[in-house]
Structure to design on (632 residues):
């Protein structure tokens, strides 16, 4: 048994390093043809997933031994099948073999479909593989469906296998291509930045900028999470990296454990939609919509800022309600000291990343690899960083390979789902079905998509959730007149929010042990805090100006109304402005915020008028209260 564990552990490291070398070489030099690139990427990924699953089943006895043996065999088999595709794809994807797959194609293709579904279950839970299996079975047996609108002729099993295994229409679709061409190299950039101390640098900058103001510890936590999360692209990693420092600091400042954990969870989740790097879903979005990654960054910028503004307003009002002050100045580092200590190692690579994508219009992966080169060149002359790289270079490569597995297998499974939709013809009907369920009302359709996202978010990571919604829901929004980029930003927004959607809120579960509080309580608190941001997401679909679509005056006006609306909603939810508000005034503040966030100008003007009336009346009430206090 011990020998099996050692073999298993060594194979994980070997395959992780092999995947890292392959990805770095292809990103730095030249990509292989699509089928070769994607099959090798998937082969190493599947092998690692099966081997890593065995480690979750630690124990003794013949059952554990059997699990190790089975998964080692599955890992080897996955490599054989995927390398067979890499070597023979030209014969497989052309001529007679594509129409009439060989016996080996049928066997390997069937096994690959099963392994992809199984590996997806191992990494993302039951929801996505079940959906994938349902759509594949629907493609094959759709002729037996009793519902006429969903019935089709049925697709031959050989055609399903051929499409899934022999070409780029199934498992090896462009979705998986996004994982191998974009996601991996950005995850490597984030891992390298973290090992070199980027997380601590962002935290120090945040404390210098915001630590002294009211609720400074919470605002510093938000700012540092936004900076670090925009690079790491993982809500859970963001919580683990920044929360271990910011959550205790918030608790020390007077915030309770539940609220501290919730703020960090919400802030960490926002990193998935915060340019310039964002999360894996953003790369998938660029590929799906057919635009550059930089265009996705521009479209997501204002929604991301509004997301964090909602959180800043919430923590500031909460601090005011509790009478909390800023962080003790003695605990805040000097800005000069922070900037002198290797700041160029982090700032210059980020500048290169943004400049090469925005000004030079380079592909995202190429910009990222240049940023990695710059970071290494700047770090190597520094003794401490050189030591950190020497001690951790293998961990950086292995951890990056491990961190890409969930997005990778979600992309492969999404290829199966898309295959089932396309071959059955359901993809052309699905939008009409969703619109019919919503009775042709856009607001009902948006609510349906949001609810679907919340349900999927209970069992799927953000990238997987986005993929499914992009395939199934975004086309319906586009058909209803929502601009394509706005529809996908809406879907991306809710796919990311799944990290703080109860009851399975992964960011909250990561924050729970750090805050020493129930993860469920943190999850529900995080969801409550993020309500204004969720309303902004709805506004994206009906006010595309927030995605920088339209005239400059229209864009500025939409932003102004949304900022004031988010503030008013936060006042209503937190129950404080210049004094603690009674329930009926909180309701009025929340209503004013909703009115301003809605797209109709008349409702926005009503919201502005109500907000002004509430501010004036609040000041009058406070002045009266102070006068009575003085008289007493």
């Amino acid at each position: 048994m011990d020998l099996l564990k050692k073999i298993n552990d060594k194979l994980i490291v070997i395959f992780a390093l092999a995947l890292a070398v392959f990805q770095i070489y292809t990103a730095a030099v030249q990509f292989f043809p699509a089928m070769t690139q994607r099959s090798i990427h998937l082969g190493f990924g599947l092998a690692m997933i099966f081997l890593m699953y065995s480690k979750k089943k630690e124990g003794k006895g013949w059952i554990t031994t059997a699990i190790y043996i089975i998964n080692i065999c599955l890992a080897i088999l996955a490599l054989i099948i995927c390398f067979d595709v890499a070597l023979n794809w030209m014969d497989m994807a052309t001529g007679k073999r594509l129409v009439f797959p060989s016996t080996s194609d049928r066997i390997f293709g069937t096994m690959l479909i099963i392994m992809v579904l199984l590996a997806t279950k191992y990494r993302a839970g039951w929801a996505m593989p079940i959906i994938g299996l349902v759509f594949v079975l629907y493609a094959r047996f759709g002729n037996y469906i009793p519902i006429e609108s969903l019935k089709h002729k049925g697709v031959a099993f050989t055609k399903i296998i051929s499409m899934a295994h022999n070409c780029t229409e199934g498992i090896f679709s462009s979705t998986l291509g996004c994982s191998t061409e974009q996601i991996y190299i950005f995850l490597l950039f984030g891992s390298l930045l973290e090992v070199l101390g980027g997380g601590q640098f962002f935290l120090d900058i945040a404390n210098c900028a915001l630590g002294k103001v009211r609720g400074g510890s919470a605002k510093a936590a938000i700012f540092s999470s936004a900076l670090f999360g925009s690079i790491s692209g993982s809500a859970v990693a963001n919580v683990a990296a920044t929360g271990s420092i910011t959550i205790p600091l918030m608790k020390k400042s007077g915030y309770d454990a539940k609220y501290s954990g919730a703020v960090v969870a919400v802030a960490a989740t926002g990193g998935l939609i915060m340019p310039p790097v964002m999360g894996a879903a953003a790369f998938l979005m660029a590929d799906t919509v057919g635009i550059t990654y930089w265009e996705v960054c521009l479209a997501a910028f204002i929604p991301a800022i509004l997301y964090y503004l909602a959180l800043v307003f919430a923590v500031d009002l909460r601090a005011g309600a509790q009478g909390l002050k800023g962080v003790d100045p003695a605990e805040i580092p000097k800005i000069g000291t922070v900037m002198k200590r290797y700041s160029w190692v982090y700032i210059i690579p980020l500048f290169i990343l943004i400049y090469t994508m925005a000004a030079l219009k380079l592909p995202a992966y190429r910009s990222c690899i240049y940023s990695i080169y710059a970071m290494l060149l700047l770090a190597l002359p520094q003794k401490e960083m050189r030591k950190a790289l020497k001690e951790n270079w293998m961990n950086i490569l292995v951890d990056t390979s491990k961190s890409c597995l969930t997005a990778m297998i979600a992309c492969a499974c999404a290829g199966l789902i898309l295959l089932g939709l396309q071959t059955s013809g359901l993809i052309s009907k699905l939008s009409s079905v969703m619109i019919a369920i919503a009775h042709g009302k856009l607001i009902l359709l948006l609510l349906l998509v949001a609810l679907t996202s919340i349900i999927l978010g209970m069992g799927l990571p953000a990238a997987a959730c986005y993929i499914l919604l992009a395939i199934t829901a975004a086309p319906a929004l586009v058909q209803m007149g929502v601009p394509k980029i706005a529809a996908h930003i809406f879907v991306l927004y809710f796919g990311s929010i799944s990290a703080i959607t109860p009851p399975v809120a992964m960011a909250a579960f990561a924050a729970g042990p750090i805050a020493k509080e129930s993860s469920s309580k943190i999850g529900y608190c995080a969801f409550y805090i993020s309500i204004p941001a969720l309303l902004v997401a709805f506004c994206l679909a009906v006010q595309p100006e927030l995605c920088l679509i339209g005239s400059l005056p229209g864009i500025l006006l939409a932003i102004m109304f949304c900022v004031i609306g988010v503030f008013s909603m936060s006042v209503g939810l937190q129950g404080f402005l210049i004094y603690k508000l009674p329930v009926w005034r909180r309701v009025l503040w929340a209503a004013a915020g909703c009115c301003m966030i809605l797209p109709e100008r008349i409702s926005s003007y009503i919201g502005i008028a109500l907000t002004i009336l509430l501010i004036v009346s609040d000041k009058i009430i406070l002045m009266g209260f102070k006068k009575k206090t003085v008289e007493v």
Remarks:
- The mean pLDDT is 86.
- Residues 3 and 562 are 61 Å apart (CA to CA).
- DSSP finds 30 helices and no strands in the chain.
- The two ends are 80 Å apart (CA to CA).
